[in-house]
Write a structure and sequence with these properties.
This protein has about 325 residues and is an alpha/beta fold. The protein is built from twelve helices and nine strands.
């Protein structure tokens, strides 16, 4: 982590990622209207368990220290616990992002043993609002939960009620605006209205609403992506610098992450970060907001408090 900090914050190269999103499957049991079909239609079959574990080992040989397992729906993988355990054995901070509809079929105590944070997407479009009433069960199992809400132009006014429900269990909540992917229903909220409401809610619920002040501020100022986060497909392909503008840099089945992002090809591909409109996806926008001492402290201190206490507030 010290080498990562030095390269990105002292030398300002911004080419060593801290956060890796591993999309362990492109199959999903839901069909949310705002979601990119590439995330749920099974278009990229996953590799077997042995190769998946090798991918994690190859990511570990890098600056990255956060590994998030996503999809699709990652709980559809029967080897999910083995995958998370391998990441924890490699000293990663481990996240899983899930729609939560299959969680009670899993041994939650084992999940809590290997997992630092459980991200559960709960909103009207996932048709799983009932999970707000089940949050206490996750705390009883020893899980730290970050509720994720995809905010659309139709549901922005309902966000405060969801924050209150997360606060009751002293869990955090992350509000991500819907992204209008080509061919999908246009549900993205008005940027000005989203920013105004987020500022109001952040002032009222600073310990619960997990979006940083810097992230909210960028909705007016705009931002330049720093590529401090990268995405890995279920087959091990490294998408670089992002899935919005980039392409496949190489395979992590047989290559280390550092070797791939240090290549001449990577440097050339990264040039797209400085061209055209940035994607606005939460992950890239938030990590770019952290590409300063103030941004890192504003995001890192509350997260450190949550890590140590297990409670928001």
């Amino acid at each position: 982590m010290l080498l990562w900090f030095t390269r990105n914050f002292v030398l300002r190269k911004y080419d060593w990622p801290a956060y890796v999103t591993f999309k362990t499957t492109t199959f999903c049991n839901l069909r949310c209207s705002y979601c990119n079909p590439d995330y749920w239609n099974g278009s990229i079959p996953p590799v077997d368990t042995a190769k998946t574990l090798r991918i994690i080992d190859n990511i570990a040989k890098s600056s990255a220290y956060v590994l998030s397992f996503e999809g699709g729906e990652p709980t559809l993988r029967p080897d999910l616990l083995d995958i998370i355990k391998r990441a924890k054995d490699n000293s990663f901070y481990t996240f899983v992002t899930t729609n939560g509809t299959r969680l009670f079929e899993m041994p939650l105590d084992k999940l809590a043993e290997y997992l630092d944070y459980l991200h559960i997407s709960i909103d009207e479009y996932h048709n799983n609002m009932y999970l707000y009433g089940q949050l206490a069960r996750f705390r009883e199992a020893g899980l730290k939960v970050n509720v994720q809400v995809v905010v659309t132009r139709k549901t922005l006014t309902k966000l405060e009620d969801k924050i209150k429900k997360a606060r009751e269990q002293r869990f955090k909540l992350l509000a991500m605006p819907a992204i209008d992917y080509p061919g999908n229903v246009k549900l993205s909220p008005n940027p000005s209205e989203y920013r105004t409401e987020m500022e109001r809610l952040k002032a009222l619920y600073p310990d619960t609403l997990n979006n940083s002040v810097d992230y909210i501020d960028l909705w007016e100022k705009g931002y330049e992506c720093k590529s401090l986060a990268v995405q890995v497909e279920p087959n091990g392909d490294l998408v670089y610098p992002c899935d919005f503008k980039g392409g496949v840099l190489g395979s992590l089945v047989d290559n280390g992450l550092t070797a791939l992002i240090s290549s001449a090809k990577a440097k050339q591909m990264k040039l797209v970060c400085h061209s055209g409109r940035p994607c606005g996806q939460y992950l890239h926008m938030q990590t770019s907001a952290m590409a300063s001492y103030r941004g890192l402290l504003n995001y890192g201190l509350p997260m450190a408090k949550w890590t140590l206490t297990g409670r928001a507030g």
